[in-house]
Amino acid sequence: MSILEYNGAAMIAMAGKDCVGIAADRRLGIQAQTVSTDFTKVFKMNDTIHVGLGGLATDVQTLHNILKFRMGLYELREEREMTPQVFSHLLSTLLYEKRFGPYFVEPIVAGLDAKTNKPFLSSMDLIGAPVQTKDFVVSGTCTGNLYGMCETLYKPDLEPDALFETLAQALLASVDRDALSGWGGVVHIITKDGVTTRELKGRQD
Amino acid sequence: MGDSAYSFSLTTFSRTGKLLQIEYALNAVANGRTSLGICTEDGVVIATDKKLASPLVDIDKVSKVEMITDSTGFVFSGVGPDYRVLVRKARKSSQAYKRHYGETQPVSQLVKQTASVMQEYTQSGGVRPFGVSLLVAGVDGDGKTRLYQVDPSGAYFGWKATAIGKNYINAKNFLEKRYQDDMELEDAIHTALLTLREGFEGEMNSHNIEVGVVRNGKFEVLTPAQIQDYLDEAN
Question: In Å, how far is B114's CA from the nearest CA of chain A?
Answer without folding.
Answer: 14
